[in-house]
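Box 3.1 A note on notation
Throughout this textbook, protein chains are presented in two layers. The first layer is the amino acid sequence; the second is a C-alpha cell string describing backbone geometry. Keep the layers aligned when reading.
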Amino acid sequence: MTDRCFSPFSLDEDIDRREVPALKSHPMVLGQDGRDLFAAGVADMDFKAPPVVLDALGMRLGHGVLGYEAVPAELLPALTGWLQDRHGWQVNQEHILRAQNVLNALAMAASIFTEVGDGVIVQPPVFFDFFDILRENGRTLITNPLVLNDGRYTMDFADLERKAAAPQTKMIYLCNPHNPVARVWTADELRTLGDICIENGVIVVADEMHGDLAFPDHPYTPFSSLSARHAGNCITCLYQRRRLTSPRVALHLRLSKTKKCAPLFRPRIVD
C-alpha cells in the first residue's frame, strides 16, 4: 500500500465527466447550450483519484454491506498527523468536530457566535455561497473588497480595520487560500488580519479547504498555527477530501476549533 501511495499516475488523461454526470458539466450549471464550455464554476478536479484511494474504496466495496458506520479510530490521528507533518500545525484531537460540509460549518459558526442582524465581513471576489449563507441566516453582509494591483490581489487592511471596529461587526469569513483569486496568504498578512480581529473582538472563521493544494513556492499557513492567541479566536474549516480529488467519497468534513468553542458546537453537530 505504501508503494501505491507514491506510484505515478497521469494528469493528462482526458476524462469526459459528463458520462457520470458531473455537476460541473451538467446543463443546470453550464446551460443547455454549454456543452463545449470549459467548466470552471465548481471546485472539482477532472483527475482520477490516486491509486491508493481507489484501492481502499475497492476493498471497502468488496465487503458488500454499505450500512452506517462508526468513525474509525485511526481517523483523527491520521488527520492531526497530516497537519503536523505537512504544515507544522499541532492540533489537539479534542478540538476537532465533524460537520456535514464546510458550508454547514460556516453557517453553524454564524448562527452560534453571532445574532440576527450582526455584521459578518467577507472579502470579495469570493466564493458566492458565503453571501447566501449570511443572507439565509439573517446576518448583515459587510464587504472588505480585495485590491487588485498589477495582477495580484491584496487585502485592504485600512478598510478592514474601520469595518472591524464597527460595533455591529462580530465575525469575518476568511478564505485561506482564497477562492477564486488563488492568493495563498502569507503569515504576515494573516497575522495582520488576526491582530485587527482580536483587537476588535471579531471572530475569524477560516475556510481552509484548499490549503493542501498550494504550490511549494507559495506555502499555505494555517491561520490557527500563527500563535495560541490567534488560534483562540479562530474556527478553522477543513476539507480533507479535496486533496484526494474525491469530494464525493465521504460524507463528513472536519471542523477544527478552539477548546472553549467545542461545548457550543457539539450539540449542533449532526453525524
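Confidence is low (pLDDT under 50) at residues 244-257, 267-271. The CA atoms of residues 99 and 270 lie 7 Å apart.
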